[in-house]
């Protein structure tokens, strides 16, 4: 449960930390509104795109490896934000963080349900609550840290710490969790869901055909 909570805690700060610091970011980077909007749009785009690619990408690596890759992307994006040089780098860090978030968010619910098949409501409740809590904590603490250190980069890079903790906990998860992992379950599920959607000819005709 602790692993689930910590992983979920890292799936929103890279996005919600931007809002309270947006004015400082725009002034220091001379970013326009359109460029600044990419800081939140790109992660959301990744979260929508990755589940569609999962049936194909899942054939390359296991769930465990994908989650590790996703967490690593969040760690690197947070680290990158400590030494940003321009607006393009900040946008690149948003894309990297969004990719990591999308990977973990797409796979983690299936892992949660497999770890706790008899306690799915409780486990998913903790996962959802931690996910929302991470977003709220980032909106509160990022501007506080940025004000204390006199740098909005510190407010964004702060979330490197919980991201590293999540990677360590994921790598040290108990043997019972490792034994319960079935690498094909979520990949098979997403494959059926996505391919079924694309091949539902009648449904697509209903959507695209004018009334």
UniProtKB/TrEMBL annotation:
Name this protein carries in UniProt: Cyanate transport protein CynX
Entry annotated with the keyword Transmembrane helix: yes
UniProt KW keywords: Membrane, Transmembrane, Transmembrane helix
SUPFAM superfamilies for the chain: MFS general substrate transporter
Source organism of this protein record: Shewanella algidipiscicola
Pfam family, one: MFS_1
InterPro entries xrefs: MFS, MFS_Cyanate_Porter, MFS_trans_sf
Residues passing through the membrane, by range: 32-53, 65-83, 89-112, 124-146, 152-172
Highest taxon in the source lineage: Bacteria
């Amino acid at each position: 449960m602790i692993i689930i909570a910590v992983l979920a805690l890292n799936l929103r700060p890279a996005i919600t930390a931007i809002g309270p610091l947006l004015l400082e970011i725009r002034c220091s980077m001379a970013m326009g509104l359109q460029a600044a909007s990419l800081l939140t749009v790109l992660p959301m785009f990744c979260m929508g795109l990755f589940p569609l690619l999962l049936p194909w990408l899942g054939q390359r690596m296991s769930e465990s490896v994908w989650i590790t890759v996703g967490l690593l992307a969040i760690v690197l994006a947070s680290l990158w934000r400590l030494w940003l040089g321009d607006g393009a780098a900040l946008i690149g860090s948003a894309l990297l963080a969004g990719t990591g978030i999308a990977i973990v968010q797409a796979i983690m619910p299936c892992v949660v349900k497999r770890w706790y098949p008899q306690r799915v409501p409780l486990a998913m409740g903790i996962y959802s609550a931690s996910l929302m809590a991470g977003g709220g904590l980032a909106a509160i603490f990022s501007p506080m840290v940025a004000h204390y250190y006199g740098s909005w980069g510190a407010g964004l890079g702060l979330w490197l710490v919980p991201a590293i903790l999540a990677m360590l906990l994921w790598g040290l998860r108990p043997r019972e969790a490792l034994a319960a992992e079935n690498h094909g379950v979520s990949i098979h599920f997403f494959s059926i869901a996505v391919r079924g959607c694309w091949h539902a000819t009648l449904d697509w005709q209903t959507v695209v055909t004018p009334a």
